[in-house]
Amino acid sequence: MDKNILLSEQIKKRTQFLRSKNDNEDISQLSGYLMQICYGKEAVLTNFLDPGARVDLRELAQSDFYIQEFGGYDKAEKCRVIISNDWEYKDVENFQFSLIKITYNHKFASITHSQILGTLLGSGLSPASLGDIITDGKGNWQFFISDIMLDFVCREITRIGKVAVRLDRIPLKQILNIEDDVQNVKLVVNSWRIDAILAALTRTSRNIINNQIEKENIKLNWHKINNSNIIVTVNDVLSVRHFGRIEISNITTTRKGKYRLEANLWLSKKKRMY
Question: What is the pTM of this model?
Answer without folding.
Answer: 0.82
